[in-house]
Amino acid sequence: MSTSNPNTLITRFKYQSLLRQDSAGRRIILKGTISGQPALLLVERAAFDIDPAYLNSFPRLVTHVNNLGDNDIYRWYMANSLPDGTLDQPTPPDLKLNLIYPCTEAHVAKYSFQQSRVVVETPEIYAKYVRPYMQRCREEGRLNWVFNIIEGRTEQENVLFRSKETDVKDDYLLLPDLNWDRKTIGGLHLLALVERRDLWSVRDLTRGDVKWLRHLRATLVKTVEGLYEGVEGDMLKFYVHYQPTYYHFHIHIVHVDLDPSATQGVGKAISLDNVISQLDTMSDALTGMADVDLMYTLGEASELWTKIFLPLKVGKLPEVTG
């Protein structure tokens, strides 16, 4: 075993190959040598410093801010927190920034830490309380940014694919998820926005939609395979969120190597294939996901918890009714 100063070993590491990169691009494993002996170097980005003095100066420390796109109050960027490199080897961006401006109290609540709760939404609770809540959200203009994309007014540079199906009901747009760096294939995360507006969430799907859903899934597989060389259909997972972030039906498409996160977990994500299978077993074309219990998690600051499920838990009437 080498008795060299441990601090000098890193600078003596001679890179040979990249063995692996995690799907988020935050961890890499390098193969190389030190003094002619084989070595592996595992590199992971350190946690952010949360000292108030550092956080106060953080916006001033960020350099080379490059806007990737914007829509309504949402903007996203790549930027640097490291010293400038040379002209021959410029420092690559190491930060991905999402900006919400101006934000609302609902945004603050969503992104603040909050205790989660498990709830079971019965068909009765959905019809009487949750559906009216969804309608209110849509009427408040919370979907304006989605419609801006669909109608071609904003963010068209981020549209990866816009379908032209024989039946306009089948049309969709394919977009990169805001949390994907658009480079790391193992971290691939896309959103398929359907153009039809009669579907708000998975709750609106019925047995009569099975044929359409299967066609949509098959078309999405073919499209993604065409966009990204080396990606095959059995490398992709399809799921929907319930509750979704916004009430316009959309499908998440992720690479199987993407590290599972809370957004893919039980209580948030529902496999599209499982939804199709469940719908296919229902009794008639009008029966659907509105007729089943759905379990999911909510933060204690969310409106669904404070206005509906917390009152129900303590025996009071929810504030949202049909």
From TrEMBL:
One of its GO terms (cellular component) is nucleus. The active site is at H250 (nucleophile). Pfam families: DcpS (PF05652), DcpS_C (PF11969). It comes from the Eukaryota. InterPro entries: DcpS/DCS2, HIT-like_sf, Scavenger_mRNA_decap_enz_N. GO terms for molecular function: hydrolase activity; RNA 7-methylguanosine cap binding. GO terms for biological process: deadenylation-dependent decapping of nuclear-transcribed mRNA. Belongs to the HIT family. This is M7GpppX diphosphatase. It comes from Cryoendolithus antarcticus. The lineage of its organism: Eukaryota, Fungi, Dikarya, Ascomycota, Pezizomycotina.
